[in-house]
Design goal:
Blueprint (H helix, E strand, L loop, with lengths): L1 H13 L9 H4 L28 E3 L2 H6 L12 E3 L2 E3 L1 E13 L5 E7 L5 E7 L18 E4 L7 E4 L2 E3 L4 E11 L2 E11 L3 H19 L7 H65 L2
Parallel strand pairs: 1-4, 6-11
Antiparallel strand pairs: 2-3, 4-5, 4-10, 5-6, 7-8, 8-9, 10-11
Helix pairs in contact: 1-4
Subcellular location: Chromosome, Telomere
Keywords: Chromosome, Telomere
Protein name: CST complex subunit Stn1 N-terminal domain-containing protein
Amino acid sequence: MAIWNQIAQRSRFAFQEPPTLHTGQNDDMNNNRTWQAPAPVHNAKYFSASPTYNKWVKLTAADVHALREVPGFEGQNVYFHLNHPIRFVYLVAPIVAIHEIPNTKFLLLTLDDSSGACIDVKIERKDPAEVEPNTSNTVVENLNINTAVGYDVEVTIDGQKVDIASVIKVKCTIGKFRGVMQLELKRCGVIKDTTEEIAAWQSMSGFKRDVLARPWVLSTAEQAKLDVQIYEEAVQEQEEERRERRSQRALQKREEQRAAKRQAREEEQEKRRLAAERKYNQGALI
């Protein structure tokens, strides 16, 4: 774990929050704690232009616990660092605990990246009836959970057993359990060696320094450009919907025409059959 403490320490130095604002008359009321004005959150229609919204954001466990909810976005699994909207998290850390949740289909991996906090990663099993041969028994395609009576639970990633002290990389969505931040596993892998560990932490430190250390800024010109783009996409979507409706109407019309022709043929065949039947019946009476 020593390497993790060293790397985490370097990561903390590489990521500095913006300066805090002090209010003299309120400092005593807040036990001399500093106060930082949150950056304004942009309209949700601009989130797709954010450097974090559609990205696996590289964070530490402590960073995840520090994410905040913003009124108006509750229950949408969107959290914020400064004014960066974050939905997906990428985290690298050793496993420090593996525990099943009794009478549920969930298992928890507790990760400790030496950032000052641990984080639980929830893994969901599939319904046994839905598990096909040679496939994962969880919703993560390369992770399996093996449980045998009288034995500890065994977790494998890409066929490799992982246990306490195994270092893994996880991609997760964010949730909460009883008010505490929790991650829900979507993808994962095993960190092979110290070189890969250090590279992962350096990449995270760089992203935090270059992106997360300052608020996400959208100029008026950028917002105007995005408004035009959003409008054009809406117009294009409406046109595609109109084309689809026209195509559906045309398909329905062709089906109706084919049905009408089929019915006409059947009626004509029935007329011929009745005419032939009358002819045969007339001949039988002579």
